[in-house]
Amino acid sequence: SNNGITSDTFAFNVIDFNWYVSAKRTIATIDAGKSITERFTVTPSSKLAPGRQLVQVATSSTSDSSISARTELLVDLLSPPTDIEFLDVLTPKTVSLTDPNEIQITVENRNNIIESDLTLTIASSIVTDSKNFDLNQLASKTFTIPFTASKELPPGPIEIKITTSNPNGFSKSISKTIDIPEEISVLEFESNSANLLEKSTTITKVNEGNAITGAVIKREITPLDRRFASFDPAPDSFTKEGGAYIATWAFKLAPGSEFAVQADISYYIIVVVVVLILLLSIILYFMLRDRMIFQKRLIRLRQTKESISHIKILLTIKNRGRTVEN
């Protein structure tokens, strides 16, 4: 109100810097004995805590600074809505399937009040975790989430959803994508057992990677062993290189699967053949030998200067057959 006798021009100001004002300075001309109403839109700064706060408005004449007035208003400042932001989310560009990995998440409270009972949740097929925390006004907090990736994960992108929430219904989410690399890891194991006449070898290949991969098993076999060897399963090919044969198996392995080849070499057939030959030889010997055996031996011989006067000879006849011979 202008209580003077002449019209005057006045400047209006909100002098408290804790308030953001739509117009910091407003100029108005007021006739003598008249009053006007000026409206200011004020917004509390983040430094002001909820509760009763003071707003100071001042006015002064633009022609005479001694003409001035000030008023103070008490206002109830309510708690602002929860305002939690993700400042930074650091994820590995490529996930390691052998070493530990980690995700770093930084959240910030942009309000001037303490936020309690907050929950940070991470959800994905590769890592799941949850953290409860409080956050002071205008403060930030960083979480480090370790995780280990399974080798059974297929290669490709995986989405990770990160959410901050509280029991009052506040929820804010952000999504990140990380890549699972293709891991090729095929291991080979061999076991052997043997005795005097037989030996056995088992070769196994295992895919410990996360992708389907092709694999090959090759084994060198001597020409002699090839005659007495058996394989399960049968080789895909036999090739001759130098003085030996190369047995080859080619196959595909799914993640976590294995392929085994068993090679058995048995020399029992040689023993059987030799025994049969010996038996046949014995049988033929007895079948084809002479049944009658004649043996003669000189027992006595008398001899003079002119001639032999007396000879005594022992003659033995033996029948080795089973029938009477005449």
Please characterize this protein's 3D structure.
This protein is mainly beta and 326 residues long. The chain has two helices and 22 strands. The strands form seven sheets. Strands 3-1-5-6 form a four-stranded antiparallel beta sheet, with no helix packed on it.
Topology (SSEs and partners):
Elements: E1 8-14, E2 19-21, E3 25-30, E4 42-44, E5 51-61, E6 68-77, E7 84-90, E8 101-109, E9 115-123, E10 129-135, E11 140-147, E12 156-165, E13 171-180, E14 186-194, E15 198-207, E16 213-221, H1 223-228, E17 229-232, E18 237-241, E19 244-253, E20 258-266, H2 268-288, E21 292-303, E22 308-319
Antiparallel strand pairs: 1-3, 1-5, 2-4, 5-6, 7-8, 8-11, 9-10, 9-12, 12-13, 14-15, 15-20, 16-19, 17-20, 18-19, 21-22
Quick overview:
This protein has 326 residues and is mostly beta strands. The protein has 2 helices and 22 strands.
Mean pLDDT: 83
* Total number of helices: 2
Biggest beta sheet summary: 4 strands, antiparallel
CA gyration radius, whole angstroms: 54 Å
Which term fits the overall shape?
rod-shaped
Helical amount: under 10%
Strand content: over 45%
Category by helix and strand content? mainly beta
Please give the number of β-strands. Answer: 22
Low-confidence stretches: none
Strand order of the largest sheet: 3-1-5-6
Instruction: Write the element-wise H/E pattern from the N-terminal end onward.
Output: EEEEEEEEEEEEEEEEHEEEEHEE
Distance between the termini: 173 Å
